[in-house]
Design a protein that fits this description.
The chain has helices at residues 3-10, 42-53, 67-75, 88-99, 116-119, 133-136, 151-162, 166-174; strands spanning 14-17, 29-30, 36-37, 57-61, 80-82, 106-109, 124-127, 141-142. It is α/β, with parallel strands linked by helices. The strands form 2 sheets. Strands 5-4-1-6-7-8 form a 6-stranded parallel sheet, with helices on both faces. Strands 2-3 form a two-stranded antiparallel ribbon. It is globular, with a radius of gyration of 15 Å.
């Protein structure tokens, strides 16, 4: 990990994630009955669990509203879930104020142009490998993985390793 990324990651107290294109592969699948389906990568989810156990909070701010996202975040015990937010900036600023954080204490993972208002303000801006080129050109770190295929897990591990929290997670599983 580059020194400048590690330094930024050391200050992070909150990781904010987009959903479509970050936690999922950016595909919306509809059944004949109109039911929406999404796939979530389980390793991303476990990374989120480990990150929260390490004391770093997680929030979701997404432009779409989906019962599937609500269910998945309940399963992962994510406390801050904001859905149906096409203009993410006001929600973001309110959350930052409520939690009493500075912008340098926040990391955001986004993949599309509507994520730029947040990506250009946070302490650590990250995109999946398959993010829009305009986004990739403006972030601090581009994941090796596509959205919905390990990007979030990589970011969770990056934060834990930069803050010296990774070994405690490994010790738990290697006991």
């Amino acid at each position: 990990m580059a020194n400048d990324i590690a330094k930024k990651a050391q200050s992070i107290r909150l990781l904010i994630l987009d959903v479509d294109g970050v936690l999922s592969d950016n595909k919306l699948i509809y059944g004949d009955d109109g039911q929406e389906y999404k796939a979530f990568f389980t390793r991303d989810g476990h990374g989120m669990v480990m990150l929260q156990k390490s004391g770093i909070d997680i929030a979701i701010i997404t432009g779409r509203r989906s019962p599937l996202t609500e269910k998945r975040m309940q399963d992962l015990k994510v406390k801050h879930l904001y859905q149906g937010v096409p203009d993410k900036l006001p929600t973001f600023l309110k959350l930052v104020e409520e939690l009493g954080l500075t912008l340098e204490q926040i990391a955001y993972v986004g993949d599309d142009i509507l994520d730029l208002p947040l990506l250009t303000r946070v302490g650590l801006a990250v995109s999946p490998a398959d993010a829009d080129p305009e986004v990739r050109s403006r972030v601090d770190y581009i994941s090796r993985y596509n959205g919905g295929q390990g990007c979030v897990r990589e970011v969770c591990e990056l934060l834990m390793k930069a803050q010296g929290l990774w070994q405690a997670q490994m010790d738990f599983y290697l006991r």
